[in-house]
Amino acid sequence: MRPQGTVAKWKLEEVDKLAELMKEYPVIGLIDMTSFPSKQLLKMRKLLKGKALIKMSKKALIQRALEKIGKKELVSHLQGEPALLLTKENPFAISKILIENKANAPARANSIMPKDILIPEGETSFSPGPIVGELQKAGIKAAIERGKVVIKEDSLIAKAGERVDAKKAEIINKLGIEPIELKLRFVAAWEKGMVFGEAALSISAAQVLEWLKQASAGSLNLTFKVGYPTKYNVKIFVQKAYTNTKSVALKANFVCEATAKELLAKAGAQAKALSEKIPTAPIEQAQT
């Protein structure tokens, strides 16, 4: 028997193995595998082959290993049923793979709905029978019309965050809805002394590009408003200066290459207007 208060040898060895394994990778990630099916895990391992390694172990042992290699900042991110995700790739690229390869699954008793489950109004594929009563008990307004079961109006069967019972789960599945998202939650990643949380890792490249566009437009507007010229806005400043200078020159009737055409047109228009105001002498008066 192991003396009371001592740690099992295999646990100490497992902590050492985990610690040595993590030292081989510049990026140490944590994933939450709660309720993630083994079939999907096998598929994910294949997708990540050559890019990342998923290493499963007990939560307490992962914590000890993290503490042993000085990565205590990751300990607070140990959630649910954690596992290590080790990679030499960009953690955001790995996160993209996880997000893009999520799958949907049927609801089960006690499943928590990730979003509102709305049953749309309209005809269903069900034939008349007990299903009508089952739908009605679930809070769905159903009826029989022209030999088909029809949903009379949009019905909210479950709200986001709600835990459904077995009967509701069965109805949701019969309606062909698979509300459960099967994905590995990339909870955190350590790289070069920085820890990226789940929210940061979930940001897409498209979102980053949009933020960069907004930041670029905002900084351009700011530098223009405060009159600070840069290589990105100098063309706008030159155009503005040209427009203002030309406007002043036109008001002062100053003739130059930029204003000559408009000033001549203005003079012509004024001459025509003036000539129209001068009365024409009668012909007989002109002959005398």
Automatic annotation (TrEMBL):
Entry keyword annotation includes RNA-binding: yes
GO terms, molecular function: large ribosomal subunit rRNA binding; structural constituent of ribosome
Large ribosomal subunit protein uL10-like insertion domain sequence ranges: 107-177
Record GO biological process: cytoplasmic translation; ribosomal large subunit assembly
SUPFAM superfamilies named in the record: Ribosomal protein L10-like
Top-rank taxon: Archaea
Alphabetic keyword roster: Ribonucleoprotein, Ribosomal protein, RNA-binding, rRNA-binding
Keyword set includes Iron-sulfur: no
Any one cellular-component term (Gene Ontology): cytosolic large ribosomal subunit
A Pfam match: RL10P_insert
Known role: Forms part of the ribosomal stalk, playing a central role in the interaction of the ribosome with GTP-bound translation factors.
Subunit structure and binding partners: Part of the 50S ribosomal subunit. Forms part of the ribosomal stalk which helps the ribosome interact with GTP-bound translation factors. Forms a heptameric L10(L12)2(L12)2(L12)2 complex, where L10 forms an elongated spine to which the L12 dimers bind in a sequential fashion.
Family affiliation: Belongs to the universal ribosomal protein uL10 family.
Protein name (record): Large ribosomal subunit protein uL10
Naturally occurring in which organism (per UniProt): Candidatus Naiadarchaeum limnaeum
